[in-house]
Design a protein that fits this description.
With 482 residues, this protein is an alpha+beta fold. The chain folds into two domains: 8-304, Electron Transport, Fmn-binding Protein, Chain A (Pnp Oxidase, Chain A, Roll), CATH 2.30.110; 334-454, UbiD C-terminal domain-like, CATH 3.40.1670.10. It has helices at 8-17, 32-42, 70-76, 85-92, 95-102, 185-197, 210-216, 226-234, 316-333, 365-375, 377-380, 398-408, 411-414, 463-472, and strands at 21-22, 47-50, 61-64, 109-110, 119-122, 144-146, 150-154, 161-164, 168-172, 175-177, 199-207, 239-242, 249-251, 256-270, 285-297, 302-304, 339-343, 353-358, 385-390, 415-422, 437-445. The strands form four sheets. Strands 5, 6, 7, 8, 9, 10, 11, 14 and 15 form a nine-stranded antiparallel sheet that branches. The two termini are 40 Å apart. Bound molecules: flavin mononucleotide. The site of flavin mononucleotide (FMN) has 19 residues, from strand 8 and helix 6.
Length: 482
């Protein structure tokens, strides 16, 4: 199998070939697709390509669980399918920095047209109700067409194009809301447009190579376009078409694209929505919306769904693997020596808990690593606990990490706090109406630097000796041996 593929359809062929694609037929968009997907991702099952969806034309499909296994994520990142969680984490070490650097050579190329133009609905002809948009969770306020999406916006001053995964709810056949949290690139772009023109251009890709929703859904650095970054991951530039409606680039082989402008002051009821911390946190609020001017779609289009919920959820595995690699690289770029491991587990949605392992080299090293891991762009939004441990701790093993916290900290001296940090209405501990700050704890669970060598020795057998014993006594543990 090659590491190369271009669009979602070729991605599906690759996933089918490794036996990780199922084809559920006849599900209802109303809760059933969401429920079946929830069962599937809790079991780390196959990707699901729903077809024959009730009330929709056959061939109009929804894909979920796209990036929920090491093998599918490996395919998506062009790292091959032959991966376990551990090999994927090590294959990604240093990759985000390399992709960022290489993105300078992979600007997207503009082409005249592409498969996404096979069907065009414009003006009064726009009808978003044709698509099998799921009603994902029981208490949602509407049907979310944008979950595993990639929303293109542009900085009107610096002219760089961002892709972000920002949720989008159907209002009717030609209006959708768009919820972007303050401080996200798409929000800053749109703020600047509002200040200059009183309106902001938006292109929402609702089905495409899952690479775009992954990169859109993690904190690629400011000023770096995810389109170029995706080109670097793929090893060739992404083909885009310049929109005649907004001037923004459209991914030429996307499945479904929604185009329009958000006007200043246009706001509509949005939410509630089952959110990634695991609650319907933000309830109903007024959010910007766009009147859709044009919709493009391929024949038999495939919507990419990626609903959040109590973790693990549809994209928590992807976020954990990607964030762990990105925060690792951010620490290295910030000059932190001897970073041995970083892990942002799924229980914290890949955000609220970050564990960093270092080999301590100097007094203050652990706090420095902890504060940067808490506040670098890759981790700053909605973080909560950052735990720094010594290199003998496996960052992916929560039992071991919490053992280090229990035995190598003195709560009064080992925990520092940061107040008024970057959060949003997705923070479950915010009461309605409170400003979107949260606080952070940096837990230094390393053996104290100044008496490291005196610290009690760990009570466990010498690993080489234990390995020898396991060989000799393996029959006791079902692992062969004498
Ligand atoms: C499936 C999915 C849905 C998301 N929904 C939202 C959302 O509704 N609003 C938001 O601000 N961020 C959302 N995020 C998180 C952002 O995509 C993420 O923070 C990303 O880094 C934003 O892009 P930016 O860093 O270029 O602003 C979502 C992420 C994923 C993967």
């Amino acid at each position: 199998m090659t590491n190369k593929y271009d669009d979602l359809r070729q991605w599906l062929e690759q996933v089918e070939a490794i036996g990780e694609l199922a084809h559920p037929q006849g599900a209802d968009w109303n809760l059933e697709i969401g429920g079946v997907s929830e069962i599937d991702y809790k079991k780390r099952g196959p990707a699901l390509l729903f077809d024959g969806i009730k009330g929709c034309a056959p061939g109009y499909r929804v894909l979920t669980s796209s990036t929920n296994s090491a093998r599918r994520l490996g395919i998506t990142l062009r790292l091959g399918a032959d991966h376990t969680d551990a090999t994927l984490v090590s294959a990604l070490r240093g990759a985000p920095s390399r992709w960022e650097e290489a993105s300078k050579r992979f600007a997207p190329v503009y082409v005249e047209s592409g498969p996404v133009f096979e069907n065009v609905m414009e003006g009064d002809g726009v009808d978003l109700m044709k698509f099998p948009t799921p009603f994902w969770h029981e208490m949602d306020g509407g049907r979310y067409i944008g979950t595993g999406c990639a929303v293109a916006t542009v900085d009107p001053e610096e002219e760089w194009v961002n892709l972000g995964a920002y949720r989008s709810m159907l209002m009717d056949k030609n209006h959708v809301t768009l919820s972007i949290v303050q401080g996200k690139h798409g929000h800053i772009h749109n703020q600047k447009w509002m200040e200059r023109e009183g309106r902001a251009p938006v292109v929402i890709h609702c089905g495409m190579d899952p690479l775009f929703f992954m990169l859109g859904g993690v904190e690629v650095p400011t000023g770096v376009s995810e389109l170029a970054y995706a080109g670097a991951v793929r090893g060739e530039p992404v083909k885009v078409v310049k929109s005649t409606i907004t001037g923004l680039p459209i991914i030429a082989d996307a499945e479904i694209v929604i185009e329009g402008w958000i006007k200043k002051g246009d706001r509509a009821d949005e939410g509630p929505f089952g959110e990634w911390p695991g609650y319907y946190v933000s309830g109903k609020s007024k959010e910007p919306y766009l009147k859709v001017e044009r919709v493009l779609h391929r024949n038999n289009p495939i919507m990419l769904g990626s609903p959040p919920a109590k973790p693990p959820h549809d994209y928590s595995y992807m976020r954990t693997i990607m964030k762990s690699a990105m925060i690792f690289d951010a620490l290295v770029s910030a000059g932190i020596p001897e970073v041995k491991g970083v892990y942002a587990p799924e229980c914290g949605g890949g955000r609220m808990l970050v564990i960093v392992a270092i080999k301590q080299r100097y007094a203050g090293h652990a706090r420095q690593a902890g504060f940067i891991a808490s506040q670098c762009r890759e981790a700053a939004y909605m973080g909560k606990y950052t735990i720094v441990v010594d290199e003998d701790i496996d960052v992916t093993n929560l039992e071991e990490v919490i053992w280090a916290v229990c035995t190598r900290t003195d709560p009064v001296t080992s925990i520092d706090f940061i107040r008024r940090a970057w959060a949003s209405k997705a923070e479950p501990m915010l009461r309605k109406g409170e400003p979107p700050f949260n606080s952070r704890a940096v837990i230094d669970a390393c053996r104290p630097y100044e008496w490291f060598s005196e610290f009690p020795k760990v009570a466990q057998g010498d690993p080489d000796y234990l390995r020898e014993l396991e060989k000799k006594w393996g029959a006791l543990f079902g692992s062969g041996g004498a």
